């Protein structure tokens, strides 16, 4: 058996995204329906001990980076305990958190002390009324307070995730870019993805991220690529406006997919390995936890069937796909 997690396309996997819950305190329009979601009962979620044991095994095969996601990960009680457990595992160098920011500010210090190294905060509008509509009730003041608290405790680089949607928030592109001009913040525009959505509804809101560079040009801003400027080697193509304190990034899985450099696996809250975000293939780890060799074999099996690409662009073009897309919502996968 290999000593590193390498798939048949030669991609080395050193990054694990872990969803700790499928529940969320918000109902963002691109992620979850307003009502009718069926959540996993608590007893079906992986325990912190099961998660930590899985990570300990994978660290022995080269996993170095962990990202905790949800749903909203801070809905899970005592998340600081899990961060402490993960940060004590030899080989784990980076523990990041993706959050909507509503619950983060009061827990920032404890999370940092536990070993959290970085944070991504979802922020799809800078306008209070629109933010409330997109999130179906979210209070932007709490998110903005969390951003400032993350700065205060030193969880840098601080990345803001903006899902760009035509006719909904694309008129705020310049406002988000100005954030990167004025503060050491890293705004990442993300293309709206066809995951768990009706194709027609998704297509009507999809916008390619070339729009962001066009807006920079129309504002007279000079930009330069700075892909090595940020910690981590994720899918974002990063830029800096001349003289800016921060940066902005483009994550375009549909118009310009990044699969050839994919280095990640996903572990869902109910214990399923997902080798690819978009396809339906899953392998449940729970019965293998406690058997290091069996658990490792399961991850290598997942890598064996990992396809070269997620083919999301084919949805836009109404082309036939080579695999079966997932029917899970983004909140059930962990992004």
TrEMBL record:
The keyword Lyase is annotated on this UniProt entry: yes
Catalysed reaction, written as an equation: GTP + AH2 + S-adenosyl-L-methionine = (8S)-3',8-cyclo-7,8-dihydroguanosine 5'-triphosphate + 5'-deoxyadenosine + L-methionine + A + H(+)
Broad EC category: lyase
Pfam families: Mob_synth_C, Radical_SAM
Coiled-coil residue windows: none
Amino acids binding S-adenosyl-L-methionine: 30, 71, 122, 193
InterPro entries: Aldolase_TIM (IPR013785), Elp3/MiaA/NifB-like_rSAM (IPR006638), MoaA (IPR013483), MoaA-like (IPR040064), MoaA_NifB_PqqE_Fe-S-bd_CS (IPR000385), MoaA_twitch (IPR010505), MoCo_biosynth_MoaA/MoaC (IPR050105), rSAM (IPR007197)
Amino acids binding [4Fe-4S] cluster 1: 24, 28, 31
EC number annotated for this UniProt entry: 4.1.99.22
Cofactors: [4Fe-4S] cluster
Keyword Transport: no
Pathway annotation from the record: Cofactor biosynthesis; molybdopterin biosynthesis
Record-listed GTP binding positions: 17, 67, 98, 159, 264-266
Radical SAM core domain mapped to chain residues: 8-245
Cofactor note: Binds 2 [4Fe-4S] clusters. Binds 1 [4Fe-4S] cluster coordinated with 3 cysteines and an exchangeable S-adenosyl-L-methionine and 1 [4Fe-4S] cluster coordinated with 3 cysteines and the GTP-derived substrate.
Signal peptide: none
GO molecular function, one term: GTP 3',8'-cyclase activity
Keyword terms of this UniProt record: 4Fe-4S, GTP-binding, Iron, Iron-sulfur, Lyase, Metal-binding, Molybdenum cofactor biosynthesis, Nucleotide-binding, S-adenosyl-L-methionine
Binding site for [4Fe-4S] cluster 2: 259, 262, 276
Residues annotated as transmembrane: none
Family: Belongs to the radical SAM superfamily. MoaA family.
Subunit annotation: Monomer and homodimer.
HAMAP family reported for this sequence: MoaA_B
Record's function text: Catalyzes the cyclization of GTP to (8S)-3',8-cyclo-7,8-dihydroguanosine 5'-triphosphate.
Protein name: GTP 3',8-cyclase
Lineage: Bacteria, Bacillati, Bacillota, Bacilli, Bacillales
Encoding gene per record: moaA
